[in-house]
Amino acid sequence: MTESASRTAVGLTIALIGNACFAFLTFSRYVALP
């Protein structure tokens, strides 16, 4: 892997994890509503 490709892979991984966390928190908030 080149340096730029490695950075891109890390960036995509972080973005995916962030999106998953955001979706989970949003889902939890809707489920927690009475």
UniProtKB/TrEMBL annotation:
From the record, give the transmembrane residue ranges. Answer: 12-32
Q: Does the keyword Transmembrane apply?
A: yes
**Alphabetized UniProt keyword annotations:** Membrane, Transmembrane, Transmembrane helix
Q: Which domain of life is it from?
A: Bacteria
Please report the name of this protein according to its UniProt entry: Uncharacterized protein
Protein species of origin: Novosphingobium fluoreni
According to the entry, what is the taxonomic lineage of the organism?
Answer: Bacteria, Pseudomonadati, Pseudomonadota, Alphaproteobacteria, Sphingomonadales
